C-alpha cells in the first residue's frame, strides 16, 4: 500500500514471524517458554485521565485522539454516578456547614448508574478513541496471526508458482472505501467526522485537495475586468510554490483529516486548483514543482515511480485473490490539451500505461478515479449560460476510454469523480455491454448551494431539476427530486463479499453521513452481456442517448427559460416605466386644469 499504516502492519507481521521461528530466544526462559512465542508489539504512547462528567461537553477527546495512544487508562470518576443535592446551609435538610444533617451526595440506583455509563460510552469522541485504539490493536494481532499462518503453511496456495506460496501474507479484505474532492483548506471541515464514522479502509482524494490558486474579485466593469464578454484579466492567478506548500501543510494539519490519516490509508490524484490554476492543462508552467508538493501531501515514498514520471497517475491493488479491488487514478491535468480543442485528456504515455493496467491481472472490481466527470456532460445542456469541465468536452477521448474498457474485456468497472461542487450518480448503458456508473462526490467544503445566499438555495435546486440530463440516476431514495446534492458531501463504496452474488452499494453522503443519493446492485450486473445496445438516429433512450444528441428544444431549455425570463422582466420594467410616465403626465395635466 505504501503508507505508514501499511508499513506498520508489515513490521508487526515480521515481529510475529520472528517470534514463531526464533525458538529459545528468551535467554533464561523455562522449558517451552521461548518456543513459538509471539512478541508483544512495542508500546510507545499511553494516555490517561479521570473525572469525566458524562453530562458535560467533552471536546478533550479530540486532543487525546490526535496524541494517538496505543493504550488509554481510566483513573477513576469515569462517570459521575452519584447525585449531588443542592447546597443548603439552613433549613430542614442542611447539606453543608457545622449544622449539616443530610448528605450532600446520594447514590443512584443501579439502573440509573448503568444509563450514565451508556451515555459516557456513546460519547462521539470517546467512541472514536475506543475504535482507534481497540481496532488498531486487534488489526495488528490479526495480521500477526496471518503472518504466522503464512510462515508455517507451505504450499497452501495450490497452483502457486515456485516460492509464491511460502510465507506469503494475505491481504485484508476491503469492504469500505470513501472518496471526496474540493476541500478549501481555509474553510471549516466538519465532514471528516462523518467520514471517520463511516470507518473506511481507504480514502481517495479526487482533486482540489487544497485551493492553491488565488481568486481575484468579480469585476464586470473597470480597468481590470475579470468576468463577462469584455474580460481582460484572469479571474484566477497561481500561487508561489512556497504559498502552495503552506496551504498543503494547513490542510494536512486539520484535526479531522489528521484523525482519518491515523486510521485509514489515503491515496489520491489532483484537479485544477491543487494542480496550480483553475481549468489549467498541459500549458501550465508550475506543474513539475507542484507535482512534488502533492506527492509530499499524500506521503508518497521518496523512491515512488510517481516522483519520476510526468503526471501523478497510478494504480493500487487491494485485497486477496478472488476479492481484489483495483483502483486506477488518472491524471486529467498534466497532459490535457486546451478546452474546446477536442485534443487529448491523458496524453500518449498515460494512454499506454492505462491500456497496460486494464490488460493486467484481473480483479473482481476496478475503480477508475477521474478528477472530472466521465459520463455526465452537463456543459452540453447548460451552455451558453455556463460550462463545466468533463470528459464530455473531449468526445473522442471519452469514446476511446469506453472502447478501451470494452476491448480489454475488463468487467466490474465503475468511475468516481469530483470537481463540480455537487454530488450525483450517472449511468451509461451503451458502451461496454454492461452499465458504467460514475459516482460524483464534490465537494468536502465547496458546494453550489454554499456559493449563493441561503434564500436562493431553492432556485439552485429548481435549476438542477430543470437541467436536462440523460445519464443521471433518478431514484425515489434521493434527498431532492433532481437527484443532485449541492451541499458538502463525500462518496462511499460498500462491498458485501459475504453475499452470493457479491453486492455493491455506491452512495453520496451528506455532512453528517446520511445518504442523499445511491444505488445498490450485484456485481453480476457489471459483467458483459455480449452485445452493446445502440440508439437509432433521432431516438431518445435514457442512459444511452448522449446529451449532445438531444433535440435542441430540450437541450437548450435552461437557456431558453433564462432568456425568456430576462426578456419578460425587461418588458415588465418597460411597461411599469411607461405606466408611471403616463400617470405622471396625467397628474401634471390635472394640476394645470386645477
UniProtKB/TrEMBL annotation:
Domain of life of the source: Eukaryota
All residue ranges annotated as the PhoD-like phosphatase metallophosphatase domain in the record: 307-430
Entry keywords, A to Z: Membrane, Transmembrane, Transmembrane helix
Coiled-coil blocks: none
Pfam families, alphabetized: PhoD
Transmembrane segments: 7-25, 138-160, 560-588
PANTHER family: CALCINEURIN-LIKE METALLO-PHOSPHOESTERASE SUPERFAMILY PROTEIN
Protein name: PhoD-like phosphatase metallophosphatase domain-containing protein
Annotated source species: Populus alba x Populus x berolinensis
